[in-house]
Structure formats: C-alpha cells, structure tokens
Design brief:
By secondary structure, this protein is mainly alpha-helical. It is 51% helix and 9% strand. It has helices at residues 4-13, 18-31, 55-65, 72-80, 93-99, 107-121, 141-150, 156-168; strands at residues 87-89, 124-129, 132-138.
Length: 173
C-alpha cells in the first residue's frame, strides 16, 4: 500500500484534466493562494466515499414523499456508510440514528421508522435480526425514482427536475 508521501508525489506530478484545470484556475482567481489552508483531497485523505451527484435531489424527493417524517437524512447517512458492494452492516443503530438527526430518547425507534419508510418506497432492502436492522442493501436511486414516478407518487415537475440533473451528470442517457 502506498504511503501518503507517495500519493502526494503522484498527485503533484499528474497533469489535471481540462475541466479540473479550469476549476483550479477559478479557485486561484477567487480565493488566491491557499497555502496553509487545508482542503479535503480524496486522493490523499481517508474517509472518502463516492456519492451520486443526484443525491441532493434524491434526498429532497424522499423528504417530500415522507412528509412530516422526513427520511432523507436517514438515506444520506446510509450512503456515507456505503461501499461499492452496496451493502451496509449496521453495527450500531444508535450511531446511525444520531447521524440521521435523531437525538431524543426515542432516537432508535424513530430511525427504525424512517428505515421502514425507505424500504416501503423501494430505496433499500433490509435483513433484520429480531427487531434490529442488521444488513441494508442500497438499491439504485434512479430506478427507484422512475418507478415511484410511474406509480404517480412523485409530482411531474419534481421528477422532471431530477431527470434533467440525472441526464446532466450522466446518470441516465
């Protein structure tokens, strides 16, 4: 495994792509020298997870569909624990409940209710041990939203906004 110095040397030597070079030029123009300012670098910093660029809209749709009991932040917390295999081993429901924004004595119960909403909507599948979530399978959000739209559960304008962004970032053709 490469150490951080080797990775740093590689990232300094590689030429940025044209879009990356443009963003770097904009950053330098508007923010000047960033020497001494620490920025997150996914090539060298641990704790990074790739996320779909459509995720903010997916979370908004989830919140719209779970009115009064929003489950979008719960879905987001799951994504932050996700790996390429799309399965999450839930080792601590209380931590996930906190990450999902629930801090009261009923945080685990509230979190479990939001998880059930996500499953009912088709965003996840789960395997429980007793009444506790153990494994969560993250389903493809584009396919889930399309199915919900076709079932008439998502407003046309909301779906068209999502669809436009998904096309823009290449999530759909």
């Amino acid at each position: 495994m490469e150490n951080k110095q080797q990775v740093d040397a590689k990232t300094k030597l590689s030429k940025p792509s044209k879009p990356a070079a443009k963003r770097l030029a904009l950053r330098a123009r508007f923010f000047g020298s960033l020497e001494g300012i620490e920025l997150w670098n996914r090539a060298t910093d641990d704790g990074y997870v790739p996320l779909p660029r459509i995720l903010p809209l997916v979370v908004s749709v989830i919140d719209a569909l779970t009115k009064g009991k929003p489950a979008g932040l719960t879905y987001l917390a799951l994504w932050f624990r996700n790996f390429d295999e799309m399965i999450i081993d839930v080792t601590d429901e209380a931590s996930l409940a906190y990450e999902s924004g629930f801090h009261s004595e009923r945080r685990i119960t509230t979190w479990q209710q939001r998880m059930q909403s996500l499953e009912d909507l088709g965003f996840i599948k789960s395997q429980k041990v007793g009444n506790r979530y153990q494994y969560v399978l993250m389903l493809h959000p584009v396919h889930t939203l399309k199915a919900l739209y076709e079932e008439g559960k998502i407003q046309k304008e909301m779906y068209e906004t999502f669809e436009h962004r998904a096309f823009e970032v290449g999530a759909i053709a």
